[in-house]
Amino acid sequence: MAKANKHGLPADRWDAVVIATHWLVAGGFVCNRLLNEAGGVWHERIGLTVAGLVLLRLLWGLTLARGPARLSQFLPSWTRVRHHVAQIRSGELSNQLEHNPLGALAIWLFWLGLLAVAATGWGQDQSWGDAWPLADIHAWLVDGLTVLVVVHVLAVILMSHRMGQNLLRRMLPLP
């Protein structure tokens, strides 16, 4: 078993709620992006489930989460982002479980983007939905999130290599 950190969590792993919501949201996004017919019943159900999971993660991060999973622990700022970019350039990377500032910024973009995707998807079914270009906005948001997913995966691979450790393992649901 991994050594515990100061919050009583395994020092090299995220907690179960963070891991579960991460993979369920990722799976739901991929299903709706690649496998489901847009506007179909399953597309809508999965989209609303993803939104619910994001809200659950936010609620968890505000209330019961400990350590680096608390939302207050990874509020991005431009100062922290600039400092982190300088660390990347110099090769002085810290080995911590917390999200680095660029990762924190990406996480917030994911959460806000996923909630906006759900809202624009839901809005298309409402009587006022035709008055707004919600279908276009929905598609643009999904495309933007898809690019962010690719950047996220590449960043995990690159940072794992640069830091000499397997960052993916921290988010795997297996021991």
From TrEMBL:
UniProt-listed GO biological process terms? respiratory electron transport chain
Q: Using the record's annotation, list all stretches that form the Cytochrome b561 bacterial/Ni-hydrogenase domain.
A: 13-173
Superkingdom field: Bacteria
Q: Which stretch is the leader sequence?
A: none
- Membrane association type: Multi-pass membrane protein
GO cellular component terms, alphabetically, are:
plasma membrane
Which is an annotated GO molecular function term of this record? electron transfer activity
Give the protein's recorded name.
Cytochrome b/b6 domain-containing protein
